[in-house]
């Protein structure tokens, strides 16, 4: 029997992906949770009395997030009011099933659940959008709508903050994709543990330093109730290649997942766009009309082609010679 390298008494059944240490299950749970607690404390993510909306999709990351946030809130008396917040994108056979998981999580963690849907907010489900535009660019609609839907749901909950289950692997993938796209503005922002300005609701990523493999192990060993099917509308091949590339790097050097080496002199490259309010829907936007309204307009008018300028584009154009326009063709 191999003994646990930490407690020296338990039987080692886990090889930690992050450090390659052999551990027993209780020690693995302990170090996993304590690292997240340390991230929360070091980055002063919360203060007592905060109302925190846990963005819950029913997937492994956000289910582990609900479990760990509940555990740490009790263990360390954070004094947080926790809520589960789910967005129903209207994807039959995918989101309806995962929402059933979140409904069970509500009982398991004894945290109130709020569900907001694209249908009630925008008058469109993703099923209807895909029926209209096909499987090209549908993820753009979904991403833009989800971002705003989470804000709107959190405001209904009177939440002070939103936490998401984005982990170190997700962030490393996004760094790579922004690098490949030459999107310097997003590159500077995507590794931040907190996003959002005074106007927007702050979004926190307590799993910024947590490896996906460890999240999967934690969920598996703790037999958490989560939904593990991939979205039926997002083959997302490009991100998939980035993911595989990073998995190969991780196999050689596990620390590749932590993208902390990226220090860009923000002032010299780009400015973070100023947040204001959309003149149509009144929600947070860095442009006079927000992306959600532009996309919604194009859907409702059945326009075949629209152009969306990335946030901060005007500023970037002055310093980065390549255009960062995204043309969306339906
Ligand atoms: N429909 C949704 N409702 C609420 N939150 C969501 C939803 N979709 C995604 N999120 C939030 O955004 C995070 C990242 O979402 P992503 O789509 O990348 O899924 P993921 O990495 O598979 O995470 P998960 O395992 O939690 O589904 C999730 O962990 C969750 O916090």
From TrEMBL:
Residues covered by the tRNA(Ile)-lysidine/2-thiocytidine synthase N-terminal domain: 52-246
Entries under SUPFAM superfamilies matching the protein: Adenine nucleotide alpha hydrolases-like (SSF52402)
Coiled-coil positions: none
Cellular component per GO, a single term: mitochondrion
Subcellular location: Cytoplasm
Protein family: Belongs to the TtcA family. CTU1/NCS6/ATPBD3 subfamily.
HAMAP family per UniProt: CTU1
Highest classification ranks of the organism: Eukaryota, Amoebozoa, Evosea, Variosea, Cavosteliida
Pfam family, one: zn-ribbon_14
EC supergroup of this enzyme: transferase
Organism this protein belongs to: Planoprotostelium fungivorum
Descriptive protein name: Cytoplasmic tRNA 2-thiolation protein 1
Primary residence: cytoplasm
Role description: Plays a central role in 2-thiolation of mcm(5)S(2)U at tRNA wobble positions of tRNA(Lys), tRNA(Glu) and tRNA(Gln). Directly binds tRNAs and probably acts by catalyzing adenylation of tRNAs, an intermediate required for 2-thiolation. It is unclear whether it acts as a sulfurtransferase that transfers sulfur from thiocarboxylated URM1 onto the uridine of tRNAs at wobble position.
Highest taxon of the lineage: Eukaryota
EC number: 2.7.7.-
Pathway entry: tRNA modification; 5-methoxycarbonylmethyl-2-thiouridine-tRNA biosynthesis
GO biological process: protein urmylation; tRNA wobble position uridine thiolation
Positions of the Cytoplasmic tRNA 2-thiolation protein 1 C-terminal domain: 276-307
CDD domains xref list: CTU1-like (cd01713)
The entry's keywords: ATP-binding, Cytoplasm, Nucleotide-binding, RNA-binding, Transferase, tRNA processing, tRNA-binding
Entry GO MF terms: ATP binding; nucleotidyltransferase activity; tRNA binding
UniProt-annotated binding residues for ATP: 55-57, 61, 87, 165, 170
Record keyword Glycosyltransferase present: no
């Amino acid at each position: 029997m191999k003994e646990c390298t930490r407690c020296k008494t338990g039987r080692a059944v886990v090889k930690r992906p992050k450090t390659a240490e052999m551990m027993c299950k209780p020690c693995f749970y302990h170090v996993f949770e304590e690292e997240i607690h340390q991230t929360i404390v070091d980055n002063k993510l919360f203060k007592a009395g905060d109302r925190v909306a846990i963005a819950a999709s029913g997937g492994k990351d956000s289910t582990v997030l609900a479990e760990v946030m509940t555990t740490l809130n009790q263990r360390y008396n954070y004094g947080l009011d926790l809520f589960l917040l789910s967005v129903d994108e209207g994807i039959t056979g995918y989101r309806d099933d995962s929402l059933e998981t979140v409904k069970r999580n509500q009982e398991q963690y004894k945290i109130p659940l709020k569900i907001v849907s694209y249908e009630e907010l925008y008058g469109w489900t993703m099923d209807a959008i895909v029926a209209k535009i096909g499987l090209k660019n549908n993820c753009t609609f979904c991403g833009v709508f989800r971002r705003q839907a989470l804000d709107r749901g959190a405001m209904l909950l009177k939440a002070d903050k939103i936490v998401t289950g984005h982990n170190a692997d997700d962030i490393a993938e996004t760094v790579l994709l922004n690098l490949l796209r030459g999107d310097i503005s997003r590159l500077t922002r995507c590794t931040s543990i907190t996003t959002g300005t005074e106007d927007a609701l702050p979004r926190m990523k307590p799993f910024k330093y947590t490896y996906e493999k460890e999240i999967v192990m934690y969920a598996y060993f703790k037999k958490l109730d989560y939904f593990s099917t991939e979205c039926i509308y997002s083959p997302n091949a490009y991100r998939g290649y980035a993911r595989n590339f990073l998995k190969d790097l991780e196999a050689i050097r596990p620390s590749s997942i932590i993208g902390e080496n990226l220090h860009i002199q923000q002032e010299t490259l780009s400015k973070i766009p100023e947040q204001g309010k959309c003149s149509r829907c009144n929600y947070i936007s860095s442009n006079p009309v927000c992306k959600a309204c532009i996309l919604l307009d194009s859907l409702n008018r059945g326009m075949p082609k629209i152009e969306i300028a990335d946030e901060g584009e005007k500023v970037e154009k002055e310093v980065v010679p390549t255009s960062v326009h995204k043309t969306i063709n339906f």
